[in-house]
Amino acid sequence: MILKQLTASVSCLFGAATGLVFITGCQTYEPKPLDLTSHRQHWYSRTTSDEDVRKFAMSLISIDSPRHTEFNPVDGLTLSEGEIVALVFNPDLRMARLRASVTQATAPFAGRWQDPNFNLNILKIAESIPDPWYISSSLSLTIPISGRLNSEKLLAASEVNAELERIAESEWNVLRNLREIWLSWSANQLKMEQTEAIIHELDAIVESTTLLAESGELLKTEAILFAIERETRRTELERIKADLAEEAQNIRSLLGLSPKAPLELQPSLSIQSTVSEAASIEDRNPTLSRLRSEYEVAERTLHREIRKQYPDLTVGPQMESDEGQSRIGFIGGIPLPILNSNRGGIAEARAERDLARAASETAYERITGHLAGLRTRLHGIHIRRASMETTIVPMVDQQLTDAYQLLELGEGSSLVMLESFVRAYEVKLKLIDTQLEDSQTQNAIHFLMGPSSNSTGTQNNNPIP
């Protein structure tokens, strides 16, 4: 009779534990096979005018930023429009956001109480006695009196913030890389135009010098030099076209578009920066912001490890039957932090915090030094560019004009004219290279200074697919 009563009591405890499981709701596994064929079709159909891009562009238009302007890629994609497309489709940013979603998915469940623990022991006494069964059951619950759960919640929140800072840094890196290659592609566009122009002029000159050589008015050895120069420029033109094709494909990759996606790019050889020279890199640089958030994670981790050295209380009801005698009561337990006290975890967390501090401090030193070097380089570029535009270019233009005039009067040399012609072309290419170096240096400075407020998708809290 007693055994039946105790069994009923155990059944009640087991039923209560089972009921708690069903109340909380168990999740079920649902397979989701990988389908690269479907993804390939979706990727190949992706364009710069997709609805996702337009929605994101519209969400940015109201923000005070030079690149947040009207989005209309139909007449060709500008650099500012390309930045918007990259923020939506870039594959590296997609992976960064998905990695952050893992942390965001677990954060709401941080700091929860441990699940109750149900124990059941059934033993039969070997000796022959009237009631040989020993039955014991308990339902224990851990009560967090150490404060560990609250520290886990704070740690989870700081980890989410750190992931968002990593996304912002990744977005800024993608925009920097896109601007870098866009500038290079634009410079090559100008070089291609200049090379095509000189080839067109050389075609006419080669035709006339060939006739002069045939009539004996010009040495064939001099006439052939113009043909050699033309073929040299044609070879150079093919190299420039190959570089343009490769850079256009690299731009497609940064934009997250397939190699066959229709894309018309608008060249741009200048960088607009809204960050003042007095802006603080500590507040704006994405790398320093990310390291600062990682230091906060290290702080929270140390706080959690310290709270874990304090014990939590375990209590719960217990029922048992021993030789026909029924007992009911409570169990309780608390660890004694005298041997372990989580010393290893605390020591490791302290070392990790010191490492995070050093990472922020050394990164600040490197970035500040690099920024000073870039500004010195930019100053030198401006001096060289001014010298070329005010001195060398006028001299070359005048030399080319004089050579043409002397040749028309029959007093000039064809070799002098060829040299002047080539020098004028080379100076134009050097001017393009100088402008490219100027813009790329400004882009590097702009990258180190960091974005202005509300200039990336994550910082705007705008939903990006």
How would you describe this structure to a colleague?
The chain is of the alpha+beta class. Among the domains are: 2-23 and 92-260 and 276-371, Outer membrane efflux proteins (OEP); 46-67 and 77-89, no CATH class. The chain is 65% helix and 8% strand. The chain has 11 helices and 4 strands; from the N terminus they run αααααββααααββαα. The longest helix is centred in the middle third of the chain and has 67 residues, at 148-214. Residues 459-463 have low confidence and may be disordered.
Order of helical and strand elements:
HHHHHEEHHHHEEHH
Low-confidence stretches: 459-463
CATH topology of the domain at 2-23 and 92-260 and 276-371: Outer membrane efflux proteins (OEP)
Mean pLDDT: 83
Instruction: Determine the N-to-C terminus distance.
Output: 66 Å
DSSP summary, beta strand count: 4
Major β-sheet profile = 4 strands, antiparallel
In what range is the share of β-strand residues? Answer: 5-15%
CATH homologous superfamily annotation of the domain at 2-23 and 92-260 and 276-371: Outer membrane efflux proteins (OEP)
CATH architectural grouping of the domain at 2-23 and 92-260 and 276-371: Up-down Bundle
Give the strand order, joined by hyphens, for the main sheet: 1-2-3-4
- Total of DSSP H or I helical runs spanning 4+ residues: 11
Name the assembly state: single chain
Helix fraction, binned, reads 55-70%
Which structural class is indicated by helix and strand composition? alpha+beta
Shape call: elongated
